[in-house]
């Protein structure tokens, strides 16, 4: 392993914050005596190839600078390797960083926290979800929320979060509950009409929506949140509660825990860490201690 640290940068994260964040993060790491190399890909595939090359070459750490999309790419490179992951969270959602209590939108503080953790040899072993060969850190979403993503991704205007707010309004008018077949740990089967099903390794998605509020990224299990057959009125009443996690107390919401979850439903797309996985059926496995994360709170 070399002494060099690799900054893995998304220049477009958070409407340009990614590019600006790299400099103070790098400065904090260099001030602590570390050699820093920056990697910026031409596109996602090129960026991932470069990140994997850095890991294969023995970089001391891979530091994702951006939002949850950049963390997702970084996870594909470092999962199940000795290379630790650092996060400089400057995206829109930053749910992976929030879930682990890492600094958010403060690149200098994030850089210092990473440097301190490297000096102390302090890492946390964190569980990840895996669908096929794709790793995810926070939540696998399906149902109403994934259809909002589908619609928002098709919209060319407006930009940013407003696009998804408008997509939510449009999808709400058309949405009907979906018949799901949920298989837990290969043997328990539940068939239910559901508004959405979320498989949480971490508690939140979408920039702090605590859809799986009690999920623990260190227990080897997913929290599977099932929102049942809700009317539009009920959904509108329950939805604001997701930011505090109090929606879990609603009678139409159930939570089960499992290490392996298969979701099957017609015409539903799955998204993990905000990235499209493809249509259901999909099978997710929780892989204990799959990645080492740098930052405060380690042993």
From TrEMBL:
Q: Which PROSITE patterns match?
A: DAGK (PS50146)
Coiled-coil segments on the chain, per record: none
Ranges for domain DAGKc come to: 1-134
Needs which cofactor? Answer: Mg(2+)
The EC number(s) attached to this protein equal 2.7.1.107
Supply the InterPro entries for this chain.
Answer: ATP-NAD_kinase_N, Diacylglycerol/lipid_kinase, Diacylglycerol_kinase_cat_dom, Lipid_Phosphate_FormReg, NAD/diacylglycerol_kinase_sf, YegS/DAGK_C
Source domain of life: Bacteria
Question: Top EC class per UniProt?
Answer: transferase
Which keywords label this protein? ATP-binding, Kinase, Lipid biosynthesis, Lipid metabolism, Magnesium, Metal-binding, Nucleotide-binding, Phospholipid biosynthesis, Phospholipid metabolism, Transferase
Give GO terms: molecular function aspect only. Answer: ATP-dependent diacylglycerol kinase activity
- What PANTHER family does UniProt report for this protein, alphabetically? LIPID KINASE YEGS, SPHINGOSINE KINASE
NCBIfam families according to UniProt: PRK11914.1 (NF008882), YegS/Rv2252/BmrU family lipid kinase (TIGR00147)
Q: What family name appears in the similarity comment?
A: Belongs to the diacylglycerol/lipid kinase family.
Protein name as it appears in the record: Diacylglycerol kinase
Native species: Streptomyces longisporoflavus
Output the lineage of the source organism.
Answer: Bacteria, Bacillati, Actinomycetota, Actinomycetes, Kitasatosporales
């Amino acid at each position: 392993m070399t002494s060099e640290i690799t900054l893995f940068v998304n220049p477009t994260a958070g409407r340009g914050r990614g590019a600006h964040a790299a400099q103070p993060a790098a400065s904090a790491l260099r001030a602590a005596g570390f050699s820093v190399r920056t990697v910026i890909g031409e596109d996602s595939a090129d960026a991932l190839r470069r990140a994997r090359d850095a890991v294969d070459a023995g970089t001391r750490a891979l530091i994702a600078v951006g939002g949850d999309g950049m963390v997702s790419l970084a996870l594909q490179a470092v999962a199940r390797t000795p290379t630790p992951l650092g996060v400089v969270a400057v995206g829109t959602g930053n749910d992976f960083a929030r879930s682990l209590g890492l600094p958010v939108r403060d690149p200098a503080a994030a850089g210092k926290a990473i440097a301190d953790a490297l000096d102390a040899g302090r890492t946390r072993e964190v569980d990840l979800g895996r669908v096929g060969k794709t790793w995810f850190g926070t939540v696998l979403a399906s149902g109403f929320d994934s259809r909002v993503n589908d619609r928002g991704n098709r919209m060319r205007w407006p930009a940013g979060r407003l696009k998804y707010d408008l997509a939510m309004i449009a999808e709400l008018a058309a949405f009907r509950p979906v018949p799901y077949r949920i298989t837990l740990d290969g043997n328990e089967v539940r068939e239910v009409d559901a508004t959405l099903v979320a498989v949480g390794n971490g508690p939140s998605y979408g920039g702090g929506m605590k859809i799986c509020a009690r999920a623990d990224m260190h227990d080897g299990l997913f929290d599977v949140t099932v929102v049942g057959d809700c009317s539009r009125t009920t959904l509108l009443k329950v939805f604001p509660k997701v930011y505090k996690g109090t929606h879990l107390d609603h009678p139409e919401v159930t939570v089960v825990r499992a290490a392996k979850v298969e979701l099957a439903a017609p015409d539903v797309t799955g998204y993990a860490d905000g990235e499209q996985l493809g249509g259901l059926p999909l099978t997710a496995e929780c892989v204990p201690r799959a990645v080492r994360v740098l930052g405060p709170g380690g042993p």
